[in-house]
Amino acid sequence: MIDDSPKRFDRIVAILIQLQSKKIVKAQDLADRFQVSLRTIYRDIRTLEASGVPILSEAGSGYSIMEGYRLPPVMFTREEASSFVAAEKLMQQLADRNLGSSFRSAMYKVKSVLRSKEKDWISMLETQIAVHPAQSMFNENVPDALELIMSSIAEQKQLSLYYHAFGAEEPTERMIEPVGLFHENNFWYVLGYCHLRGDYRQFRADRIQGIRRSDLPFTRKHGPMEQYRCTAPEEDTTLVRIRIDKQVARYLRSGRKYYGFLSEEPCGNQVEMRFRVPESSDAFPRWYLMFGDRAEILEPESMKERVRALAAQTLANLGVAEGITV
Fold first, then answer.
1. What CATH number should be reported for the domain whose range is 237-320?
2. 196: phi > 0 → left, psi -120 to 50 → alpha, else beta; which?
3. In which element (H, E) is residue 249 found?
4. Is residue 158 classed exposed, middle or buried when 0-12, 13-18 and 19+ CB atoms within 10 A define those classes?
5. CA triplet 240, 242, 247: central angle to 5 degrees?
6. Close Cβ partners of 27 (under 8 Å, ≥ 6 residues apart)
7. Mean pLDDT, to the nearest integer, of 83-102?
8. Rounded to whole angstroms, how far apart are CA atoms 182 and 322?
9. What is the rounded distance in angstroms from the CA atom of residue 71 to the CA atom of residue 14?
10. Residue 66 has what DSSP assignment?
């Protein structure tokens, strides 16, 4: 018996849209998205073919639509239109100048196909939604950083970065092979193979002082970005391990991400946490002093020394200010 329910109709339309959005779409990806069996996807594809949609099947690869075939713009639901507003606000604040401008241009095209009632819905929401990042995520003198990094990844071409590592006196030039981009702890990072270091590194976008295209191809085949995330430290950072009372640890969950938090593991009545911390910054030791009476630094010794130095200076300042003999 053929299932002609509205749910199936919506799924078939969504499959058609997805086929138009990519060069090749795997049947398993469609099955995972709609949470149906492969047999159901095969039946839906046959329905589209019977309706005149020229679908090409490539054994072992997936499905594609014949080049040149396009349907008129689809209509969006009110909920989908609402998501455009949030996406546009995020891109205005979380992307650099050039990428944000490109997204605004794309959004004008998307809005142009909306029905009048969806346009009114968006207009009502646009002034009522705002995004305020905690800090600047890009160097204003490099407005096209994300655009060039994404082009480099897609074209498999090396990039030249003029990068100012934390604590370094002067920026240095780096030839890198970008593997991916990610947003973490309110900053954008590019992860790539650094020819200067001979290893994978991650670079914070706001510390890029200059960026230049290169015609040099990648020298190696890179895997998925997540394959290197755990092993590629940001330039000039160190791994810090602390152990802290469970009762205190739960109050740190909202703020620890700003200090390089990596992971945590229960240890009886305590929690062991790992952080990736800039070597020359005092941000982490100052934060640690807020709860240091209920925590212990396991490693490295250099972090213990920095906390001791800050604590000693604090005591000395109290002695001067209040007449206390230290």
1. 3.30.70
2. alpha
3. helix 246-249
4. buried
5. 145
6. 38, 41, 42, 45, 62, 63
7. 83
8. 48
9. 13
10. P
* Phi/psi of residue 85, nearest 5 degrees: -65, -50
Q: Residue 34 in 3-state DSSP?
A: helix
Q: Answer yes or no: is pLDDT of 257 > 80.
A: no
Contact 54, 69 (CB under 8 A): yes
The 3-state DSSP class for residue 23 equals coil
**What's the DSSP call for residue 134?**
S
Q: pLDDT (tens digit, 9 = 90+) per residue, 200-227?
A: 998 988 889 999 999 999 999 999 888 8
The pair of three-digit structure tokens given for residue 279, joined into one six-digit string: 């070597």
CB 175 within 8 A of CB 226: no
3-state DSSP helix/strand/coil percent for the chain, to nearest 5?
45, 25, 30
What is the third-level CATH fold of 6-65? Arc Repressor Mutant, subunit A (1.10.10)
pLDDT of residue 298: 95
Closest CA to 203 of 169, 240, 228: 228
CATH of domain 145-229: 2.30.30
Q: Are 92 and 98 in contact (CB under 8 A)?
A: no
Among 225, 147, 157, CA closest to 191 = 225
| Rounded Cα gap, residues 57 and 63, in angstroms | 5
Single pTM value for the model: 0.57
Q: What are the extents of the domains in the chain?
A: 6-65, 78-126, 145-229, 237-320
No. of helices (H) and no. of strands (E), the chain? 11, 11
